[in-house]
């Protein structure tokens, strides 16, 4: 059960949403309203990761709740000081299998950055994945925004992949090698 008792930011796992009918409503609602604030938390990712929406709907969603080896969607819920309603200020998509512990997507929305929320969400990623050294790829476009996290958690760059997701863009891989 998700309990909101303060104005502090909180991380909610999709798998925590109960009953199952609410998960289905949430998934449909996000799909239907994903182009509007505050539900457009993945807005802009298509520019760096082509077909992000298709990947999410066709690869990620079917694996939600597939048991111990599955994907998880973490949502960072936050509110401004004057507001009581929480909105999705950031999210992470995780993949945890016996072969891979990966942060597939990680984003803090523009208006919510520089508040320590990235660190809070990253800590929850570590907890859910069971490691502080998950596989993560970061586009050259977003690499500057990750500098503090990379330094703080001592992520080790393992690969540099030009044109991996998008021609003219480079992916930096940390902590493990990306299998093609």
Verbal overview:
This protein is 26% helix and 26% strand. Strands 1-2-3-4-5-7-6 form a seven-stranded mixed β-sheet, with helices on one face. By secondary structure, the protein is an alpha+beta fold. It has a single domain (10-135), classed as Aminopeptidase (3-Layer(aba) Sandwich), CATH 3.40.630. It has four helices and seven strands.
What is the gist of this entry?
The chain is α+β, with helices and mostly antiparallel strands and 180 residues long. The protein has helices at 20-33, 52-60, 117-129, 143-152; strands at 10-13, 70-78, 87-96, 101-108, 135-139, 157-162, 170-174.
Element layout with pairings:
Elements: E1 10-13, H1 20-33, H2 52-60, E2 70-78, E3 87-96, E4 101-108, H3 117-129, E5 135-139, H4 143-152, E6 157-162, E7 170-174
Question: Averaged pLDDT, please?
Answer: 79
Q: What CATH architecture would you give?
A: 3-Layer(aba) Sandwich
Q: Give the overall shape.
A: globular
Question: What is the string of SSEs from the N terminus onward?
Answer: EHHEEEHEHEE
Question: Could you say which structural class the secondary elements and strand pairing correspond to?
Answer: alpha+beta
Poorly predicted spans: none
Radius of gyration from the alpha-carbon trace, in angstroms: 16 Å
The proportion of residues forming helix, as a percent range, comes to 25-40%
At the first level of CATH, what is the class?
Alpha Beta
For the termini, the CA-CA separation is 38 Å
Mind summarizing the main beta sheet? 7 strands, mixed
């Amino acid at each position: 059960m998700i309990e909101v008792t303060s104005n502090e930011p909180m991380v909610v796992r999709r798998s925590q949403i109960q009953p199952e009918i609410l998960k289905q409503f949430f998934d449909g609602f996000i799909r239907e309203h994903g182009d509007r604030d505050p539900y457009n938390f993945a807005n802009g990712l298509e520019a760096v990761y082509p077909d992000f929406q298709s990947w999410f709907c066709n690869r990620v969603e079917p694996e939600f709740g597939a048991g111990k080896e599955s994907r998880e969607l973490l949502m960072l819920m936050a509110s401004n000081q004057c507001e009581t309603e929480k909105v999705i200020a950031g999210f992470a998509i995780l993949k945890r299998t016996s072969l891979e512990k990966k942060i597939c997507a990680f984003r803090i929305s523009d208006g919510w950055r520089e508040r320590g929320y990235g660190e809070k969400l990253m800590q929850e990623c570590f907890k859910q994945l069971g490691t502080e050294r998950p596989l993560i790829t970061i586009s050259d476009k977003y690499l500057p925004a990750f500098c503090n996290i990379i330094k703080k958690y001592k992520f080790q760059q393992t690969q540099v992949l030009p044109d991996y997701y998008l021609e003219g863009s480079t992916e930096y891989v940390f902590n493990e090698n990306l299998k093609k």
